[in-house]
């Protein structure tokens, strides 16, 4: 039952991103964002417990806890605590961590405080490349159910089981001490509500997209399959979960401890956790066959479709299709790019090398002036690069880039792939390279749209949310031109947090369902980018060059074990580019040739 409108009703959405956490306090009656707060992770800022050269990215649970207290207390002070009826958390994913029998993260227990393997394994940690390849191979050859089929037919090193396998193989102490494992969004929700780990309500969104959970085979993959993957996983299935729950359901209420720490009350309802992109799609007012692009360090592309229309059709090469992962009662489909803003940030770091490593040796500037100059230039670099890149005549620059610096998430996950740049000359300058990088992330987006439509899922509109969508007109106009589609930009600066607030409003009984909450609390759209007809044909030609470049790089990437759908098979096949790919020249990979074979049939 929906609560009476006369009663003041506020909800809080908490959104954990890669670098920071933010909270929004929302008037659930109107959708007005009354207050917001952001907190950067202190340990992560200096990359403690990380090793970028090994693609190891770990986050300490204390960063999450400190951030939670900081942002929620700041927004909660704006209204009486009794008026805040609900709270929900979304996080990055897959970001799992080991916990003890009480659900406490191992890194918060004696002996594991500084052990990266006892911390949360961030979504972009790619240390489990070998394990992901092994999962893909064994899923097709073990003689039983192919548990990857609802994950797009390819399991990624970014996901739950691959990361757990890697950690338990690498660290015997963690393997022995870990009673269970939890996604970041589940762990926080359990911490806030207390209760029993065994009966805690785990996220359908997280389990379905990343842990191969599906109702058709009784939940998680079978014990037989998991021990076939890795004997050290024996017994873990029974210590995880069987049922999963959508993000509009009640997980519990705040404990006395956390009510005091956050400045709230024990009457505050806490909803089941979810992933940031899926919550953001709700705030982006997603509807059937819309694609909401959540654009930040990476992208997640979220589509929802009526289950009655998609049925049992499997979409190859995406990041899963899950009943109720976005809007209960509809099928949620996920895709995305492993690097979007991250690619542009990488180029900025390259250009800033002298600022970070040479400027400190200056005999002209004082340390204070050095710091001021460093900050000023860093703040202006991407702004001025964007202006200069927008002025580049595409006909005069032939620089072409691949956006795979974090590997490729979709279509056809392969985190072993690397980025590349071609057609550099002595006349190539920084704005031309920057423009090529922007074009590359847009071409990567186009491949995702094409994959959905080739697989029979139409994309009727594109909606942009997130930092890049709000801040970079150059990127968004280029994306509209490359896709040859209009792109609407959501108003909210904190769309995932607003989406979580909508989930909280349903869990708290303010609204009966997510669609009703979405209509009442949605903030609408700020602007729309229309494709420039004069650019479309040129970008199409360059897109075909991008595809040819990608085929060449993938065919020559050493150690790239990829599962790609076979043209003549109903199931994807394992393709080891190190052992059986011919080392073809780029000229042989021009448009029209086939290095990767995709099946656009249900598997």
TrEMBL record:
Residues 573-586 have a biased composition (Basic and acidic residues). InterPro entries: ATPase_NBD, FGGY_C, FGGY_N, Ribulokinase. Transmembrane segments: none annotated. It catalyses: L-ribulose + ATP = L-ribulose 5-phosphate + ADP + H(+). Residues 564-603 are annotated as: Disordered. It holds the Pfam family FGGY_C. CDD domains: ASKHA_NBD_FGGY_L-RBK. Residues 591-603 have a biased composition (Polar residues). Keywords: Arabinose catabolism, ATP-binding, Carbohydrate metabolism, Kinase, Nucleotide-binding, Transferase. Pathway: Carbohydrate degradation; L-arabinose degradation via L-ribulose; D-xylulose 5-phosphate from L-arabinose (bacterial route): step 2/3. This is Ribulokinase.
């Amino acid at each position: 039952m929906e609560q009476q409108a006369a009663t003041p009703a506020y909800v809080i959405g908490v959104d954990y991103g890669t670098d920071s956490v933010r909270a929004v306090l929302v008037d659930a009656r109107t959708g007005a964002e009354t207050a917001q707060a952001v907190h950067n992770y202190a340990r992560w800022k200096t990359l403690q417990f990380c090793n970028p050269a090994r693609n190891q990215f770990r986050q300490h649970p204390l960063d999450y806890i400190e951030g939670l207290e900081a942002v929620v207390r700041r927004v909660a002070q704006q209204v009486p605590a009794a008026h805040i009826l609900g709270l929900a958390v979304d996080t990055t994913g897959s970001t799992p961590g080991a916990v003890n029998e009480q659900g406490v993260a191992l890194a918060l227990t004696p002996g594991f405080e500084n052990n990266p393997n006892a911390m949360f394994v961030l979504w972009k940690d790619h240390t489990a490349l070998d394990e992901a390849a092994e999962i893909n191979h064994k899923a097709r050859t073990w003689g039983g159910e192919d548990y990857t089929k609802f994950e797009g037919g390819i399991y990624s090193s970014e996901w739950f089981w691959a990361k757990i396998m890697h950690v338990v193989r690498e660290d015997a102490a963690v393997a022995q001490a870990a009673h269970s494992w939890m996604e970041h969004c589940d762990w926080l929700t359990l911490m806030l509500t207390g209760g029993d780990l065994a009966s805690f309500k785990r996220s359908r969104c997280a389990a379905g997209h990343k842990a191969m959970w599906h109702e058709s085979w009784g939940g998680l993959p079978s014990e037989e399959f998991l021990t076939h993957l890795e004997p050290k996983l024996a017994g873990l299935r029974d210590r995880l979960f069987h049922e999963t729950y959508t993000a509009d359901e009640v997980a519990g209420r705040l404990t006395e401890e956390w009510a005091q720490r956050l400045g709230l009350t024990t009457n505050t309802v806490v909803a089941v956790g979810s992933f940031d992109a899926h919550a953001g799609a709700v705030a982006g007012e997603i509807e059937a066959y819309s694609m909401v692009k959540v654009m930040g360090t990476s992208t997640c592309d979220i589509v929802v479709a009526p289950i009655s229309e998609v049925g049992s059709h499997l979409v190859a090469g995406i990041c899963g299709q899950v009943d109720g992962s976005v809007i209960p009662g509809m099928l949620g489909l996920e895709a995305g790019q492993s690097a979007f803003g991250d690619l542009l940030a990488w180029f900025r770091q390259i250009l800033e090398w002298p600022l970070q490593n040479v400027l400190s040796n200056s005999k002209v500037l004082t340390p204070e002036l050095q710091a001021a100059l460093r900050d000023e230039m860093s703040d202006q670099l991407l702004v001025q690069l964007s202006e200069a890149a927008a002025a580049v005549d595409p006909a005069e620059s032939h620089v072409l880039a691949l956006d795979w610096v974090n590997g490729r998430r979709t279509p056809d996950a392969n985190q072993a792939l690397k980025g590349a740049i071609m057609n550099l000359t002595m006349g190539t300058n920084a704005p031309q390279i920057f423009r090529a990088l922007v074009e590359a992330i847009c071409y990567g987006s186009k491949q995702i749209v094409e994959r959905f439509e080739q697989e029979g899922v139409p994309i009727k509109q594109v909606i942009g949310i997130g930092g890049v969508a709000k801040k970079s007109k150059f990127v968004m106009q280029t994306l509209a031109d490359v896709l040859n589609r209009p792109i609407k930009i959501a108003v909210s600066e904190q769309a995932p947090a607003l989406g979580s607030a909508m989930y909280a409003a349903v869990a708290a009984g303010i609204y009966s369902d997510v669609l009703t909450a979405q209509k009442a609390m949605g903030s609408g759209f700020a602007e729309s980018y229309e494709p420039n007809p004069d650019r479309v044909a040129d970008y199409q030609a360059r897109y075909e060059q991008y595809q040819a470049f990608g085929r060449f790089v993938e065919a020559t990437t050493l150690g790239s074990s990829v599962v790609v759908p076979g043209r003549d098979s109903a199931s994807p096949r394992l393709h080891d580019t190190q052992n059986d790919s011919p080392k073809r020249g780029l000229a042989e990979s021009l448009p029209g040739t086939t290095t990767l074979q995709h099946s656009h049939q249900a598997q």
